[in-house]
Amino acid sequence: KRHQKQGVAGVASIRKFAPECAENAGEPPNCDTSLFQPETARYRPRMTNEETKQRLIGTWRLISTVSEDLATGEKSNTWGPNPQGYINYGRDGRMIVINTGDGRQKPSAAPTDKEAADLFRSCLAYAGRYTIDGNVVTHHVDISWNESWTGTQQIRIAAFKGNRVELSTKPTPDPVSGRMSVRTITWEKMSPETSL
Question: Is the pTM of this model over 0.85?
Fold first, then answer.
């Protein structure tokens, strides 16, 4: 009965937030309910692999990274109010990203242990192949700023909104705090003029 109630609640959520996807008992054509998260009222329509790739290709500027703590529900700006960063998706199937937190301080000529640790904790960078399955983009990391990420697969769920894209993680440990969370990283597409 418990599972039945959860199923009914899930269908009700889909009907409320995405009525066009409530047909056929929650299995409508051209909809991927695995990408619908009723607890946060997010619905992401299914895209073809080629559609997603064509929209991703290019360089994007970091706008924000919002982390939602799964234990408390609290939301915070992981990299502060004014983070910096870029991510690039190439036509050759490779990607590269670097993010830095707001308020980083320049170290001394020979950084102290604390300065080096602070710089490490306020940065994220990696590169590798990327593959696409509908709205799901997987980064296959073959080099990173943190060796614990090298060889891993970083999964992102893409939601395009105008010239921006939100890349959301599945529940994973936050790279800064280590707490289980979902991060939503918002990027803005750079035009050829702004990329110069």
Answer: no
